[in-house]
Amino acid sequence: MKKLVSLLLSVLMVVSMAAGCSTTGSNPQGTPAANPSASAAAEDSYKIGIVTPTLTVSEDEFRGAQEMVEKYPDIVVHKTLPEDFATNVEGCISVVTSLADDPEMKYILFNNGMEGIVPAFQTIKEKRPDITTIVTSNDDPQLLNDYVDLAINTDWVRRGVTIPTKAYEMGARTFIHYSFPTHMASESKVQRRDMMKATCEELGMEFVEVMTPDPQTGNGKAAMLQFLREDLPRQIEKYGPNTNIFGTNCPMYDVILDEAFKQGFIVAEQCCPTPTQAYPTVLNLEITEDDLGDYDKINSMITEKAAEAGMTGKLSGWAMPSSVYVPQFQVELAVYMHDNGLTIDDVLSKEFLDNFSKEHMPVAADFAMAGEGLDHYWMLILEDIYY
């Protein structure tokens, strides 16, 4: 009997050990077991440094980064550039490279539309090749591609196709482009205008270009806004309300959107498509300090006002500013890469970046490589919202 009991206990022990040491690599629910290296990485102490302009220089980028500090207080370190960043490039480079002095720093992110910051990332690569760099700047695309791990920018030029296409789908049969001489001296704005014109021709939509008084010369923006106030009713009388109005200058939209609610024309997208551009002022929205980052709430307010005015379906844009979105995307991507043991090569594809935005961001993005051979440089357009 004693021998029989001993034998049974031995069998039970073997069975228990087998049950606790699965050789299939799956848990009881059949999902893949965690990557051991990814689990170890997730437990490592590490930091993500992000550099933006100050609050007074660029509120969106600053707030976007600060929200990430609040979400990941033990991980994200936020530094700001000198306010004279345009003329103090050396000071900016110093701010960025100082982050690499921290041995726990594993990711350095940069978000500002300046030029001349590439030397900072050349220095970081020489000093700390283990650091992953994710950058938004206006430096030469080839330099960014060569010296940073991932460059991200808003695809302002591709909007020359997406905006008139969306306007046509919203019912527009005329597309009016308002600008002024000093703005149209910009190569990117000329490219976008030309793409808008070509897209309109392909769609069978009339393209009309109107030049306003130049706010950067003469009498400032007052003359430009007065011209818009007088010209918009004339254009709508001529072409009808199935007309889309686009202006290249942000202050224009205080008049454009106000007149849209009076005249009933289409505004498929502002020059800087965001619910916080002109809409709060024109519609007298009561937005508190706490509401500033609550884009769902702000968009709901705009949708309600559009419905009340019979403008449903005639107004569109992006659900949040790309200038807030991009720094937040950078941080979320860095956290995901670290927690899952990914390298930069694992994320450099449209499929990955598009899917990541859908699964981990409040708004989906459509990514495209910046150009042939620029596999480290990606441009994005955000998902549309219709009011």
In short:
With 387 residues, this protein is an alpha/beta fold. The protein is built from 14 helices and twelve strands. A seven-stranded mixed beta sheet has the order 2-1-3-4-5-11-10. The chain has a three-stranded parallel beta sheet with strand order 7-6-8. Strands 9-12 form a two-stranded antiparallel ribbon.
Task: Name its key features.
single chain, 387 residues, alpha/beta, Rossmann fold, 2 domains, 3-stranded parallel sheet, 14 helices, 12 strands
Model description:
By secondary structure, the chain is α/β, with parallel strands linked by helices. The protein folds into 2 domains: about 40-155 and about 325-385, Rossmann fold (3-Layer(aba) Sandwich); about 170-265, Rossmann fold (3-Layer(aba) Sandwich). Helices cover about 45% and strands about 15% of the residues. It has 14 helices and 12 strands. The strands form 3 sheets. A 7-stranded mixed sheet has the order 2-1-3-4-5-11-10. A 3-stranded parallel sheet has the order 7-6-8. It has a two-stranded antiparallel ribbon with strand order 9-12. Strand 1, helix 3 and strand 2 form a beta-alpha-beta unit. Helix 9 (about 220-240) runs parallel beside helix 10. The longest helix is centred in the first third of the chain and has 19 residues, at about 1-20. It is globular and about 65 Å long.
Write the layout of secondary structure elements.
Blueprint: H1 2-20, H2 36-43, E1 47-52, H3 59-71, E2 76-80, H4 89-98, E3 105-111, H5 118-127, E4 132-136, H6 141-147, E5 150-154, H7 159-169, E6 174-179, H8 187-203, E7 206-211, H9 221-239, E8 243-247, H10 252-263, H11 279-282, H12 295-308, E9 316-318, H13 322-339, H14 350-360, E10 365-369, E11 377-382, E12 384-386
Parallel strand pairs: 1-2, 1-3, 3-4, 4-5, 5-11, 6-7, 6-8
Antiparallel strand pairs: 9-12, 10-11
Helix pairs in contact: 3-13, 4-5, 7-8, 9-10
Organism: Pseudoflavonifractor hominis
Protein name: DUF3798 domain-containing protein
Signal peptide: 1-18
